[in-house]
Amino acid sequence: MKDKLIDHSLRLALILAAFSALGPFTVDMYLASLPQIMDDFGTNASWIQASLTASLLGLGLGQLIMGPLSDRYGRRKPLLIAMILYIVASVGCAIAQEIGFFIILRFIQGVAASAGLVISRAIARDRYSGVEMTKFISLLTTISNAAPLISPNAGSAVTSFSSWAGVFVFLGLLGMLLTAITKWGLNESLSQTHRVQGGFMIVTKNYKRLFRDRNFMGYALVNGLLFAGVFAFVAGTPFIYQNMFGVSPQLFSLLFAMNGLAIMAGSQIVTKATGRFSDHHILRVGLTLTFFSTLAILTAVLSKGSLTAIVLSTFLFAASIGIIGPVSVTLAMESHGQIAGSASAVLGTLQFALGAISSPLVGIAGENSAIPFGIVIFATSLIAIGSYMVLIRNGELVSEGQKNAET
């Protein structure tokens, strides 16, 4: 019986990881093709960069739409419609003849892909709670973090025998596969009786409820701020490693992949530790590791340390993300099961919104300075720890005091 439950959890994790992977594939697969796309459209780098920004905006803002829709109409119907929309947008990108139309389609593609991100977390909350949810989210994180490692190489493989349009044809085919999985391989996890009733005012009320919940916002900010650190890493290390240390593109890809492995390793630590230690204890261990690893990064860049020092420090930082991510998501969503879609939307949107702030800051001193990168990534950990101390720890003390007063 236990083996059957494990098999079911693994199957569900693989399915949800496929939907979570749609975001990284949408963003990363075409990156190697950007120069070719620029030439074909006869435009400049700024317009091509706008297509990347559009997809990221779609992924961030789309979650605020898809989350409440999944609370209102169940998980499968919005997901199915989103996947069909994804197919149409992908094919449209492949045949687009004008850069403005291409950018609009990239935004739509991002909105559609956001359904996979937000609804996969909501389904996990529908199915699991407490320790079991933490373990499942850790398993889901471990699997889905393979996507950023695979997607750039997959894009390069496709363009080795086709034009950049082949990347979007591939994404359209991926959308078809996920549509089929939604239709025939995914059961509805939110029963009719547990769905949110009402229109726009109810959605607004639910979002207000989430933003006023100190503990929820504490966990959401911890999660979002540290992923802003990840965005800073993604934006800064290509220039730091290659321009400042002369790392080849091949070695950079290997070093970048190591951090994906570190996140997966951190998630596995959570899987092993859950049940033996409380989620709060695991979160505090992760935050401690984040503080010291980002302090090491800042020290290395200020002292003009070696590449090895920066690589090892960022590896530990990535491992801390693997620890904090699953636990913070579980703790944030634990008391919001009925509006899990909306809660998941806030978690995901905060990641992209804070990442959009941190990413440009790392290049503020030019491509040959690593100091802004060190300051930004250390600041994200400090503010995350501050959010935990103020919104969660103090909130728990206040709650405990109220209970004692009532007693």
Run of helices and strands: HHHHHHHHHHHHHHH
Mean pLDDT: 86
**3D shape:** globular
Strand tally = 0
Rg over C-alpha atoms, rounded to the nearest angstrom: 21 Å
Summing up helix and strand content along with how strands pair, one would put the structural category as mainly alpha
Number of helices: 15
Number of domains: 2
CATH architecture of the largest domain: Up-down Bundle
- CATH topological fold name of the largest domain: Growth Hormone, Chain: A
Report the uncertain regions.
Answer: 394-407
Protein name: Bcr/CflA family efflux transporter
Domain Major facilitator superfamily (MFS) profile: 12-398
GO cellular component, one term: plasma membrane
GO molecular function: xenobiotic transmembrane transporter activity
